[in-house]
Design goal:
Layout: H1 6-56, H2 61-106
Main location: membrane
Subcellular location: Membrane
InterPro entries: TatA/B/E (IPR003369)
Length: 115
């Protein structure tokens, strides 16, 4: 649960108990439960409104899935093209680096400082 171990959970509960006292903890838990229920109801209302709006515009779940699939296919295609371009770009860069190394090796004599 959220990456919290048993000992850490006991410590947190102990601190909450010390801060609020044994009388207030059940009241706080009840309030938090009501808030979570209201949040869940609001989320469900928003989902239903979005669904109703989509249905009113002629979009159903199947067409939304088709649209999502097409968008994902385009993203994957663009990603593949970009990765292919980056591989060729890396190859060209390596070739240019090799040419520069050969040019440096071809220089004869010490490099003199310019003033």
């Amino acid at each position: 649960m959220f990456g919290i171990g048993g000992g850490e959970l006991v410590f947190i509960l102990f601190v909450v108990l010390m801060l609020f006292g044994s009388d207030k903890v059940p009241e706080i838990a009840r309030t938090m439960g009501k808030a979570m229920a209201q949040l869940k109801n609001a989320t469900n209302d928003i989902k239903s409104e979005i669904q109703k709006g989509a249905e009113a515009n002629g979009l159903d779940a199947k067409s939304l899935n088709d649209i999502t699939g097409n968008i994902n296919a385009e993203i994957n295609s663009a990603k593949a093209n970009l990765m292919g371009d980056s591989q060729s770009l890396l190859g060209e860069t390596a070739t240019e680096i090799e040419k520069v190394k050969e040019d440096i090796d071809a220089l004869s004599g010490p490099i003199k400082r310019q003033r």
